[in-house]
Amino acid sequence: MTFVYLVLAIVAEVVATSALKASMGFTRLLPSIVVVVGYGVAFYLLSLALRTLPVGVAYAIWAGLGIVLVTLVGIVVFGERPDWPGILGIGLIVAGVVLLQVFSKMSVH
Predict the structure, then answer these.
(1) How far, in Å, CA of 44 to CA of 107, rounded?
(2) What are the DSSP calls for 35-72, one per residue?
(3) What is the pLDDT of residues 76-97, one digit of tens each?
(4) For helices 2-22 and 55-76, angle between their N-to-C axes, nearest 10 degrees
(5) Do 46 and 20 touch, CB atoms closer than 8 A?
């Protein structure tokens, strides 16, 4: 269940972050509510995952996948286009998360 909590926490955080952009500085009510609820759910689920995952591992996965997913939402929903250095940087973040998960003794398998 640990990784289920973590994945759901990441999804909630991505939804909240996407709604943050849509809230236009908290001037739109519905997206603003989604931001507050989404981050609340995200942090609650992250706290459940942290019962068994080391905080460094959990945060690396959280941040890495969050960056990738928010970037994809930016591309699909908001029409944002990353440049090649941005894509390379995101690729390096993903490589770091994979390296941590596959080879690190810190990771819970």
Answers:
(1) 21
(2) HHHHHHHHHHHHHHHTTTS-HHHHHHHHHHHHHHHHHH
(3) 999 999 999 999 999 998 898 8
(4) 40
(5) no
